[in-house]
């Protein structure tokens, strides 16, 4: 059948042979001389035999000179019968002491048991073999409800924050968790609730897993790692029971960290999938929620989850007491890239004149994992050329290798693309900073994120449930800031603005049809229905005439042009500042709020009102 079975058989045969060998070479006491039964009879008649010992079918005769003769009799007949048949008289026999012994231990038992034992051994072995196959094979019938969780707790290769380059703010946020795990008394004394769930969000390879492990390393607590996709396997109900098992294990080891990787595999919005409501994912998700709610105040287990698809997560996961802390990891900027390269250079032999800066400059859009890969490729390049050290040229060469790699979707952009993106983003940021009703800029970056070249992150100053018409117009202006800048500076347009445009026309349409902000006054158009099967889809039923439809379109376009001309005006008037911001962006790639605000302050910019 296969190797294992073959091995089993050869072992059985070997054991059998060695038993037989042992049995046959077992030396009888003071090795006797084998003779025929007839010659023993002869010696008896000569009066030469002093003793006869019968053991099974073996007859041993001790002679007067103490030597021993041995022979075998017919097993059907007894000793007296056998000797009598050969003519030994009763009298002669009576004069010799005859001892009849039991057959001796080992050889006797071996002779009896072995023939019946061997088939048993073979059958038993086959059974054992089949059971092993059944277990390790597809069914795993006995262990399927247990979590397949990995424990990383070896203090030997402990990972701490010093192994994570950059991500300063993110580390700062997680420091609180570390502190809680280390000094719980401090928090409990104040009646503070333990943090329960932290959600790490970010594109693949940005160090989510690494950061979670570093938190455990910093706090010196066990780290349990499980991948959400492992939960949902073959059997229905396994996910939920595995979840229970995983939480129980983590609780037993408390204080500890339970890390759920790729939680989007189970945490997708419930009821949003095809194929019925109560599927496996949903039950697993429910179990996670139940477990997290069930933590008592002093069970010091912090659940960290990671995902690169925050958009699909179920709202229930994000509620207070669950994954209510969110840490956003971005692709590294130029300084962070340099730092990451340095970290992964630690265990490599490098030439002395290596400079990481030019490498960092040429690798925008690379994630931490890509940079690690780059360092490794460089070492391979160097080895292939039989060098003792990695040189600058190896690093430069490996950039392309990583860029062309199969999994690489991001790409480093050309100088021209970089410039266009820098101006585009500077345009968004400047318009936002110029308008009183726009949300303040938190971060401007030209590092690619998804399809867009870069991004400008604006956050409202306070939580807002209501939004005014002026704020919407300001939003539109900010959205057109990128488009208008490209037009103004390059006298050309790129595809980079397409997402801005579609979001803007969406907003403008809603202003007219849903919020009653257009010329129709307090009226809404179109009946919207939320459809929960097939993702979260909206279908709109048209409940107005074609004439109105045309008027809606003109009204939407009026709002769009309002925003657009506002943006254009601002940018024309503040072109100098626009240039300054764009140049700074090209240099630094990312401007944090403080850096950006400093630029704006220097120019004594006045904020404008939105007028309708
Ligand atoms: P994610 O979980 O976000 O997909 P990982 O944490 O698995 O990414 O990161 C993959 C690898 O990339 C890590 O093992 C690490 O070597 C490297 N890496 C990513 N980010 C960093 C960083 N900030 N500093 C050092 N190494 C990093
Ligand atoms: Mg990961
Ligand atoms: Zn844009």
List the helices and strands and how they pair.
Layout: H1 3-25, E1 33-34, H2 37-45, E2 49-55, E3 58-63, E4 68-72, H3 79-85, H4 90-94, E5 98-101, H5 105-136, E6 150-152, H6 168-182, H7 184-189, E7 197-201, H8 208-219, E8 223-227, H9 228-231, H10 238-252, E9 256-261, H11 280-293, E10 301-307, E11 325-328, H12 334-344, H13 357-361, H14 368-384, H15 392-404, H16 415-434, E12 441-445, E13 455-458, H17 469-490, H18 498-513, E14 527-531, E15 537-541, H19 546-573, H20 575-588, E16 590-592, H21 593-602
Helix pairs in contact: 1-5, 6-8, 10-11, 12-14, 14-15, 16-17, 16-20, 17-18, 17-19, 18-19
The chain binds adenosine-5'-diphosphate (ADP), magnesium ion and zinc ion.
Residues 164-167, 202, 204-210, 306, 340, 343, 368-369, 372 line the site of adenosine-5'-diphosphate.
Describe the structure concisely.
The chain has helices spanning 3-25, 37-45, 79-85, 90-94, 105-136, 168-182, 184-189, 208-219, 228-231, 238-252, 280-293, 334-344, 357-361, 368-384, 392-404, 415-434, 469-490, 498-513, 546-573, 575-588, 593-602, and strands spanning 33-34, 49-55, 58-63, 68-72, 98-101, 150-152, 197-201, 223-227, 256-261, 301-307, 325-328, 441-445, 455-458, 527-531, 537-541, 590-592. It is of the alpha/beta class and 612 residues long. A hairpin with a 2-residue loop joins strand 2 (49-55) and strand 3.
């Amino acid at each position: 059948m296969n190797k294992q079975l073959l091995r089993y058989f050869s072992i059985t045969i070997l054991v059998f042979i060695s038993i037989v060998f042992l049995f046959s070479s077992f030396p009888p006491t003071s090795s006797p001389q084998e003779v025929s039964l007839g010659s023993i009879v002869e010696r008896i008649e000569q009066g030469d035999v002093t003793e006869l010992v019968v053991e099974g079918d073996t007859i041993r005769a001790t002679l007067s000179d103490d030597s021993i003769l041995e022979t075998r009799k017919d097993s059907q007949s007894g000793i007296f019968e056998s000797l009598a048949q050969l003519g030994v008289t009763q009298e002669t026999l009576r004069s010799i002491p005859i001892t009849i012994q039991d057959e001796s231990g080992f050889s006797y038992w071996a002779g009896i048991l072995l023939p019946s034992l061997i088939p048993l051994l073979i059958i038993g072995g086959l059974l054992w073999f089949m059971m092993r196959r059944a277990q390790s094979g597809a069914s795993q019938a006995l262990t399927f409800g247990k979590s397949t969780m990995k424990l990383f707790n070896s203090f030997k290769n402990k990972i701490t924050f010093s192994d994570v380059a950059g991500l300063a703010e993110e580390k700062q946020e997680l420091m609180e968790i570390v502190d809680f795990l280390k000094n719980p008394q401090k928090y409990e004394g104040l009646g503070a609730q333990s943090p329960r769930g932290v959600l790490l969000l970010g594109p693949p390879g940005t160090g989510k897993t690494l950061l979670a492990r570093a938190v455990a390393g910093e706090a010196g607590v066990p780290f349990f790692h499980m991948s959400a996709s492992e939960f949902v396997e073959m059997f229905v109900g396994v996910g939920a029971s595995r979840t229970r098992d995983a939480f129980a294990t983590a609780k037993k080891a408390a204080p500890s960290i339970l890390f759920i990787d790729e939680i989007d595999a189970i945490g997708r919005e419930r009821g949003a999938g095809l194929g019925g409501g109560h599927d496996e994912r949903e039950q697993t998700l429910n179990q996670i929620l139940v477990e997290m709610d069930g933590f008592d105040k002093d069970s010091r287990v912090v659940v960290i989850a990671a995902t690169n698809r925050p958009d699909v997560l179920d709202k229930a996961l994000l509620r207070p007491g669950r994954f209510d802390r969110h840490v956003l990891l971005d692709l590294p900027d130029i300084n962070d890239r340099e730092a990451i390269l340095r970290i992964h250079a630690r265990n490599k032999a490098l030439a002395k004149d290596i400079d990481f800066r030019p490498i960092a400059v040429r690798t925008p859009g690379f994630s931490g994992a890509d940079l690690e890969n780059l360092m490794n490729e460089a070492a391979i390049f160097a080895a292939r050329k039989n060098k003792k050290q990695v040189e600058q040229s190896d690093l430069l060469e490996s950039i392309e290798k990583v860029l062309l790699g199969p999994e690489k979707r991001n790409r480093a952009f050309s100088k021209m693309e970089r410039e266009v993106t820098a101006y585009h983003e500077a345009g968004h940021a400047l318009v936002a900073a110029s308008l009183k009703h726009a949300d303040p800029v938190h971060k401007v970056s030209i590092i690619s994120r998804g399809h867009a070249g870069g991004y400008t992150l604006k956050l409202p100053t306070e939580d807002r449930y209501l939004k005014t018409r002026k704020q919407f117009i300001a939003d539109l202006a900010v959205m057109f800031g990128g488009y208008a800048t490209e037009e103004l500076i390059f006298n050309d347009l790129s595809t980079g603005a397409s997402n801005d445009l579609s979001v803007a026309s969406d907003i403008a349409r809603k202003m007219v049809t849903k919020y009653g902000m257009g010329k129709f006054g307090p009226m809404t158009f179109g009946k919207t229905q939320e459809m929960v099967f097939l993702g979260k889809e909206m279908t709109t039923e048209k409940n107005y005439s074609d004439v109105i439809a045309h008027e809606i379109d003109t009204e939407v376009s009026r709002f769009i042009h309002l925003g657009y001309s506002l943006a254009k005006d601002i940018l024309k008037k503040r072109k100098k500042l626009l240039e300054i911001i764009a140049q700074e962006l090209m240099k630094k790639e990312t401007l944090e709020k403080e850096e950006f605000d400093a630029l704006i302050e220097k120019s004594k910019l006045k904020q404008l009102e939105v007028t309708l």
